[in-house]
Design brief:
Residues 92-122, 540-596 are annotated as: Disordered. With 596 residues, the protein is an alpha+beta fold. It has helices spanning 2-14, 87-96, 101-110, 143-147, 224-233, 259-284, 291-319, 323-352, 364-389, 392-395, 400-430, 434-465, 473-477, 481-503, 510-515, 523-536, 548-559, 571-579, 589-594, and strands spanning 23-28, 35-40, 55-60, 67-74, 83-84, 117-118, 126-128, 136-138, 172-177, 188-191, 196-206, 240-246. Strand 7 (126-128) and strand 8 form a beta hairpin.
């Protein structure tokens, strides 16, 4: 019954007539829901566009009863909340309540008491300071606090502000009254003039230090009549409300998450530009495309689709609040992300094996790579969907059934990729294929650079998140936390993929690169090449008229067709060389190295 009543109050609060397109947070009289904080942009920035004046609006539900102290402030001004009082005065007041001062403060800090404050007894609100000051502080202006000179009578029921003279602060506080008391229940609007991390706090108050006679015999239920009876006695304060963070942009996302909308939009256009450039090169060199370049083309199309899905998902969350649709889109995004990871590892694996450049076909190994990619995709989907459907705190040991298989398939991919890349480089080195080796050496450097960046960000993220339990962690990192969690990894992936695509881009020499072997450039290799050339290209019947030196020279010229140009010579020059028209111009360095 209690849960149903609580749910009813929550639904009633959510239906309050608030401004649309804003980040909304529910607040109640429960300890865990009395305070909420969020970043606020005062003006447009790189990833935020300004369309309205920012403000914070607080609205309480019509069913709220009692009295509440409300405060809105920028986090940096938290040190001005409350006022210190002499330790002797604290001890006297606390003794009057029958509690040891340290015990009382510990209970208040841990939520062991009911968390409400009496307007006549400041003991329940004598909490440990929010600042680094070791002294105890009183935060609510009560009758006793007023008598002690900590606040003015006009401030009764409000938070005490102890800022130095001539110091302006961002603190806004009001005494909110519900029920049969004088109406002062809002809505309360707080205008934002400076970008910062703003908090809204509420503390339930009571009108007397002790319940009225007969309160102990009052029924302990949540029926409306009982709530009214308890409110009339004084100590009971029950409220629900909504804090509406209206940022400079319109949307439901908090300010710490909103930059993702623009970020994924930028990535979508960047991948589109890469796709346009890649497509233009493919059309220009369509007769010389390699099989590996078709795989790259498909991957680019899929990456554009994935970034568009992520962009649409974050944009939907910013404009709509349908939980069922949002959950479905989250699962779909997780599946698309798992497919992206599998396709990327598969493409990288067959590239490192030398597919289309060193080997025209991978044979049965290609099927094994495809099977591993499918397995990794299945494990990735299970992990993504499992972490979405099953809350992490309630998953228990079952979470390992999602993590371990994905970790094993990822490890298999990584080890196979590095082994294949090292084997390909070693093979090209042994066969003195300098140009092809340079391509895979560049790939190796790109991957090593990515590993270094990942390791560096891992250290930075670990250092950053190690202080996540500190009070200042959220205020200090709310503007950059999205980049540490998602932004840098998406940026790194784009840079690495674009670099690899540039190395394997379509060129007029693709077919020459795939079908030819580079001539050795050292003396031993040149001598071996000359001998095998003479044996392989002996004059046949059509060359019978060529004898002596003419036959030998003719053979060498024909064999020069198998040498692909490492320099900047274009395909037309290669055609001229193969047709024999290069006799009228100075010989290239291949000709000079191998003339007899």
């Amino acid at each position: 019954m209690r849960q149903l009543k609580r749910l009813s109050k929550v639904l009633t609060t959510l239906l309050l007539p608030l401004s649309s397109h804003a980040y909304q947070v529910l607040i109640t009289d429960e300890d865990v829901s009395r305070q909420t904080c969020s970043g606020m942009y005062a003006k447009a920035g790189l990833f935020t566009r300004g369309v309205r004046d920012p403000a914070i609006e607080v609205v309480f539900g019509a069913s709220s009863m009692g009295q509440v102290a409300l405060v809105i402030y920028e986090w940096r001004d938290a040190r001005y909340l409350g006022a210190s009082q002499a330790s002797s005065a604290n001890n006297t007041l606390d003794a009057a309540d029958g509690l040891d001062p340290d015990e009382l403060n510990d209970r208040a800090a841990t939520g062991d008491n009911d968390g409400s404050a009496s307007l006549d007894s400041p003991g329940a609100l004598t909490l440990r300071a929010l600042t680094d000051e070791p002294a105890q502080r009183t935060y609510i202006c009560t009758g006793a606090a007023n008598a002690a000179g900590l606040c003015e009578e006009s401030q009764l029921g409000q938070f005490i502000v102890s800022a130095p003279a001539n110091t302006s602060t961002s603190i806004y506080t009001r005494a909110v009254q519900f029920g049969g008391m004088i109406s002062n229940s809002g809505p309360f609007i707080y205008n934002i003039t400076k970008t910062g991390f703003y908090c809204v706090g509420t503390v339930p108050l009571s009108s007397s230090s002790a319940p009225a006679a007969g309160y102990q015999d009052a029924p302990a239920s949540d029926e409306p009549a009982d709530l009214a009876l308890r409110a009339s006695y004084g100590p009971a304060t029950v409220f629900t409300g909504v804090v509406d963070f209206q940022n400079v942009f319109k949307g439901n996302l908090p300010a710490s998450e909103y930059p993702k909308v623009a970020f994924y939009c930028v990535l979508t256009f960047l991948y589109s530009f890469v796709g346009i450039g890649w497509g233009a090169l493919c059309v220009k060199n369509r007769r010389d495309l390699l099989p590996i370049q078709h795989y790259v083309s498909g991957t680019i199309v899929f990456l554009i689709f994935e970034m568009f899905v992520l962009w649409s998902y974050t944009a939907y969350l910013n404009t709509s609040s349908n939980i069922a649709v949002a959950r479905f889109l989250l699962v779909f995004v997780a599946m698309v992300n798992a497919a992206r990871n599998s396709a990327s590892f598969f493409l990288l694996l067959i590239t490192c094996m030398g597919f289309s450049v060193v080997k025209p076909s991978l044979g049965p190994v290609m099927n094994k790579a495809r099977i591993l990619a499918v397995i990794h995709f299945i494990f990735g989907v299970l992990y993504s969907v499992g972490t979405v459907v099953i809350p992490l705190e309630s998953a228990g040991i079952f979470i390992f059934f999602f993590i371990i298989p994905l970790a094993l398939s990822l490890t298999a991919f990584m080890m196979w990729i590095m082994y294949s890349l090292n084997s390909t480089i070693a093979d090209l080195t042994a066969r003195k294929q300098t140009f092809k080796k340079l391509m895979f050496t560049r790939l190796y450097r790109i991957l090593i650079g990515a590993i270094i960046v990942i390791a560096s960000f891992f250290v930075i993220s670990s250092v950053s998140f190690s202080s996540r339990l500190d009070d200042n962690y959220a205020p200090d990192t709310w503007q950059t936390r999205w980049f540490l969690l998602d932004g840098w990894l998406g940026s790194l992936y784009f840079i690495v993929f674009a670099a690899i695509a540039f190395v394997w881009r379509p060129t007029p020499k693709n077919r020459l690169l795939a079908m030819s072997e580079e001539l050795a450039q050292d003396d031993d290799g040149a001598e071996s090449y000359a001998v095998t050339s003479l044996l392989r290209n002996r004059p046949d019947d059509r060359d019978a008229e060529s004898i002596g030196k003419d036959a030998e020279a003719h053979s060498l010229v024909r064999n020069d067709e198998t040498v692909f140009d490492i320099g900047e010579e274009d395909l037309s020059d290669s055609d001229e060389a193969s047709s024999g028209r290069h006799k009228d111009r100075p010989p290239s360095y291949q000709d000079r190295d191998h003339q007899v």
